[in-house]
Structures are given as structure tokens and as C-alpha cells.
Amino acid sequence: MALPPAELQPAAQVDAPPGLDNLRSRRHLFVGRASELDLLDAALDDQAGAVVQAVHGLGGIGKSTLAAHWAATRAHGCAPVRWIEADSRAGVQQGLADLATALQPALASALPVEKLAERALQWLATHTGWLLILDNVNDPADIATLTDGLTTGRLLITSRLATTWHHATNLVRLDVLGPDESLDLLTRIATSAGPRDLDGTADLCAELGHLPLAIEQAAAYLVENQLTTPTPRAYLDLIAQHPADMYRDAVVGTAPERTIARIWHLTLDRITALHRPAADLLRTLAWYAPDHIPTTLLNDLADPPARNKAIGLLTAYSMISPDPGTGTVAIHRLVQALARTADPQDPHRQPHDIARARDHATQQLVRALPDDETPKSWPAWRALVPHVDALIDHALPETDTDTTADLVHRVGGFLRNQGAGSRVITYAQRALSAYQRVLGTNHLVTLNARIRLAYAYQAAGDLDKAIALFEQTLVDRLAAKDTPSPDAPGDRTNLAASYEWAGDHLRRAMALHAYANGGAGHLEQAVRLHERILATRQQELGDSHPATLASRSNLADAYRASGDSQRAASLDQQTLAHCLREVGEDHPLTTLIRHKLAGIHTPWP
Q1: Residues 6+ away with beta carbon under 8 Å from 307
Q2: Rounded to 5 degrees, what are φ and ψ at 530?
Q3: How many CA atoms lie within 13 A of 521 on its CB side?
Q4: For residue 165, is pLDDT > 60?
Q5: 321, 331 in Cβ contact below 8 A?
Q6: Cα 482 to chain centroid, rounded
Q7: Cβ atoms of 58 and 211 closer than 8 Å
Q8: What number is the average pLDDT over the span 90-106?
Q9: Beta carbons of 286 and 348 less than 8 angstroms apart
Q10: Residues near 123 by beta carbon (within 8 Å), at least 6 away in sequence
């Protein structure tokens, strides 16, 4: 097609007509961001050469909204202002072609896209004062012809990439909204059709991690579903019960790709294509607390180069935020919620991948636990406890493995020794439930876990529950050992040990009963049990064996608790003589009995 002579003039001689701006500003949805807007303004004084600015952050954080609002409202003095969807090389080319045809409409039917893009580059190189917003850049190479080849004008880049914009004049890292700002945004949208009940608004904003896109998605859902979801509190319930659907589905009028699930799906497509272990790492991190995740929990992900590449890639795409000063990483809580929510429609959230990540997160926590509970190790314990809290909060009890049980059992013991109160009960309950399911009701480990729960109830002052657990454990422990056969002498000793083990804890239950309601029947039962245990020990182990001596001491305690102090003292005197002769002056049992006879209470270690 022949072009009019006016259209054949050099690009340098083409003036920009008015009305070329193509911004997509949504001023009514903009809140906060004062400091970020000021940072973008700061480059206005730099007039030497091209000005390149980059806004980076997590998908859904509001980078495009910030760029559009700044371009539409601030006194930057740029014209024309052109918006280019720069998520691919083809998108950049098309955006430049659109600029060329906006400058000279007759070129649209005369030149192919690539020639139009070249024409636009010529125009940009020979003019000043223009502003290009390159939105959602996934690969710096896609915009290299602009960032490397132009010496005039201004480029404002938005990208999820955080680590590749070293050449930018200004680099703006965008974070989540403040609580007041997210509350303002949700309220503004939810009440756009009129006043409504906003119960739970602050809680919903917190649950969504103050992420702008998530706030907008929730508020739009509230507007569309006023009958069935009348309040933000009701939306919270839907998230808890149907997370996959709520994160994935958009309301009418919203582009499907403008939902939380879709935004991060695209990011994970790219991350997985570059290095699949990075996606595995993200799913593992989803089971921890969002902040201060020690890098020690990442050590066994893979060999060091593969692990470092995974961490670097997630950092580059703003999916995690490392803190070199503390040796920890952070991850947005909504990224976590999505990454641990199974969705068969999403290749990045297949149920088996999420289950594997949960189990790996559990194993990493167990490996990271200190070997002791000395004061020197307390900081390490305390750094890990929030992540164990998060794991047991998000993982369903029916998915617990023996590794999970061991984890909560050990951490529960640490919390008990730290005087953590009701949290100890939570951990002890979870450990017992897991052991019962994995090992069975009468396994010794399970019975020990039940005793630990009994002690937790006792410490919390719930004596009825403690007593019931002590007594049920005795029944189950004795039921687990049938009468020993004559040809299995080892079992007879084990039986005596079982009686002693159960008797020690029944003695605790008996004492609690006496304290709580003076249960004489339980005291008599304890005396009979301890007499039986002592007889068994004497028969199997001899009268001077340390275990027999301990049984004597326990029987004396039972006599004393039942009110027979004289008989208790007499038995303790006999036992003390045996201890001095058999185990020595410094043995803990010898010290214990001396203290008892002196009226000093010392628990048996």
C-alpha cells in the first residue's frame, strides 16, 4: 500500500498529537502508598539521559495500580504516557506497534507489526518527555531494546522480579498495605452498592495478609453475593471451608487471571520451568510460620547448589524475602495458604505434592531440634516452636505420621519444662492422638504419651482429667501384659517392671484423688497394687535389687497417703538400711528416703 507523503517523513519529524495516553487508572481503588509515590517522584530531578525506574514485589501486591496512579496524578510532566503489557517479547512488540499507529494511524495497514515496533523505537530515540510503563515484565531480555538502546525519556517498569534491576535509577520494593489501608480498601469496595454489615472486616484483612489483590477479590465477592455472604466474617468461613474455590474463582466482570490463584499459577509456571526444586521448596515453606524461618530448615532440600538456586529463584520472583542478618526467610501468609491447599485443577497444587511437602517440612523440623534442653539450646528451641505451632495448626491430625508424633512429643516436653501452660496440653493431645493411630492404644510409647498428657492436665489444675488418664493408662498397661509363661522368664521381670511403671503413675493419681476429694477407695487400691508390685519384684529380682528397693519406697508412700504414717515410716527405715548396704550413701533413692523420714518432700527422679 502506498503511503501519503506525510507518513513517509522521518520519525524524528513526527509530532505526538494530543490524546495518545492509554493509562488504565483506577483512582477509586487506590489507597496509601505515600512513601512509594514520593520515591517515584524523586527521579524527576534527574534529567540526564533516560530515566529507568522499577517497581517490584509479589504478584497481587499492587505494582500496576501504583504505576498507573502515579502516572495519572503526579506532576511528572511526561507526554505521551503509554502503557505496554510487557509480560512477553510479543507483548512488548505489540505495545510499540500500537504506539507507532497511534502516532501515524495510516501505518497500521501498511507495515507489519515488527516494522511498526521499529518505527516506534525510532520515534522514542528522537524525542524526549515521553513515559512508557512496561507492566509485568517477566524477563529483562524482553525489554532490552528499550532499556539498553534509548537515551531519552522515562521508563517505569513493574515486575515480580526483585534482583535484576541494578541499572534502574530508582528501585521501589512494594510491600503489603498497612492494616488501616487494607481496611479502607475493602470497606470502600464492599459498600460501593450501599451500607452493609462489616463484621469481621479487620480479621478478614489480616487473614488475607493485607495483600491488595486478595482484598479486592474478597470485596468484589461480597458485593456480588450479598444474600449468601452478608459479612466479611461469612467470607472468612468460606475461605476456611473451601479455600481452593475461593482463591481460584473470579466474580463476574473480573478477568480470570486477576485472581490470587491464577496470578501465582503463572509465576510458578515460570519458576517450575526454570528449576522444579524451587516449587518444591515453596510448598515446604508453606507449612511453617510466615516469618523468621531459619535457613537450617532448608539444608536437606537438595545438594547445596540446587538448594541455593531454589532459594535464589524464589527470592528473584518475590515469593520469599531473605534476611541475611538473621539467617531467616519470610513468605507471605497467603502464598503459604495457597501453596498448601490442594487443587486437582492446578498442576502446582496436586494433593500428592502437597502431602510430600508437609511430610518433608515435618522431617526438617525434627532434624533441626536440639539434642538437649540446656539453657544454651533454648534460643534454638524457641526459634523452632512457632514453626511447629504452624505445622500442627495447618496439618490435619489424620495426616500425622510417627515423625509428627515424635516432633510434637519432644516440643511438648520442652514447653512443659518452660512452663508454657495450656500449650503443653495441645501438644500432648496431638502426640497422643498420633501415637494411638500410628502405634496402637497399648504401645508403650502411646502409654507414655498418655501419661505426659495426664501430667499436663495436672499442671493446669484439671485433676479429674489427669486422674482418669492415669487410671486408664494403668488398665491398658496391665492389659498389654498377659500372665507370663514359665518358659519365658524374661517376661516375668518385664511384668514386674510394668507393674512398677503403672504403680508409680497410679500413686500420682491416688495422691491427686486424695487432694481433690479424699478418695479413700483409690488409696486402698493403690496400697494393694504396690503390695502386689513389691511381692513380684522380691520374687523375680530379689530383696536387695534397686528396683525392689524403689518398690518398697513407693509402697511406703502409699501407706503414708492412706493415713498409716507409722507403717510407712517403718518400711522406709527398713528400705534405708537396705539402700545403705546395697546402693550406697550417695544413691538418689537413699537421699529420697532420708528426706522422707526427715519430713522433706523430694520427688523421685
Answers
A1: 277, 281, 298, 299, 301
A2: -70, -35
A3: 2
A4: yes
A5: yes
A6: 46
A7: yes
A8: 95
A9: no
A10: 11, 12, 14, 99, 100, 103
**Contact (CB, 8 A) for 133 and 84:** yes
**pLDDT higher for 578 or 134?**
134
CA 308 to chain centre: 21
Residue 409 to residue 431: CA distance in whole angstroms = 5
Contact 83, 22 (CB under 8 A): yes
Percentage of residues in the chain having pLDDT higher than 70? 87
3-state helix, strand, coil in the chain (%, to 5): 60, 5, 30
Q: Using a cut of 0.85, tell me whether the model's pTM lies above it.
A: no
What's the confidence (pLDDT) of residue 506?
A: 52
Q: Grid coordinates in use for 57?
A: 514485589
Q: Is 297 left (phi over 0), alpha (psi -120 to 50) or beta?
A: alpha
| 424, 459 contact by CB (below 8 A) | yes
Closest to 135 in 3D by CA, of 56, 44, 217, 43: 56
Cβ distance 154 to 132 under 8 Å?
yes
**DSSP states along 488-550:** -HHHHHHHHHHHHHHHHHHHHHHHHHHHHH--HHHHHHHHHHHHHHHHHHHHHH-TTSHHHHH
Does 552 score more than 90 pLDDT?
no
Provide long-range contacts, Cβ within 8 A and 24+ apart, for 122-128: 122/10, 122/11, 122/12, 123/11, 123/12, 123/14, 123/99, 124/99, 124/150, 124/152, 124/153, 125/149, 125/150, 125/151, 125/152, 126/10, 126/11, 126/12, 127/12, 127/16, 127/152, 127/153, 128/152, 128/153
Single out the residue of 297, 217, 319, 206 nearest to residue 259, CA to CA: 217
**Neighbour-count burial for 441-475, b at 16+ CB within 10 Å, e otherwise:** ebeebbbbbbbbbbbbbbbeeebeebbebbbebbe
The answer to whether 357 touches 340, Cβ cutoff 8 Å, is yes
CA distance 389 to 394: 9
Dist. CA 161–CA 163, nearest whole Å: 6
CA distance 380 to 374: 11
The answer on pLDDT for 192 being more than 70 is: yes
Distance from C-alpha of 253 to C-alpha of 213, rounded to nearest angstrom: 15
What's the burial of 324, exposed, middle or buried (CB within 10 Å: 0-12/13-18/19+)? exposed
Q: Please compute, for residue 156, the number of CA atoms within 13 A of its CA located in the half-sphere on the CB side.
A: 28
> Cis ω on the peptide bond leading into residue 80 (within 30° of 0)?
yes
pLDDT at 1: 52
328-330, strands of its sheet edge to edge: 293-294, 328-330, 321-323
Helix, strand or coil for residue 25? coil
Q: Which three three-digit cell numbers place residue 318?
A: 518475590
DSSP 8-class letter at 287:
T
Give the closest residue to 22 by CA, choosing from 155, 128, 133: 133
* Amino acid identity, position 316: A
Of 35-44, 48-57, 223-232, 281-290, which one has max mean pLDDT?
A: 281-290
Q: Which helix (H) or strand (E) holds 53?
A: strand 51-56
- Rounded Cα distance, 484 and 398, in Å: 36
Please check the confidence at residue 106 and state whether its pLDDT lies above 80. Answer: yes
Any idea what DSSP says for residue 597?
A: H
Can you read off the three cell numbers belonging to residue 160?
515480580
Query: Which one, of 413, 510, 420, lies nearest residue 463 by Cα?
Result: 510
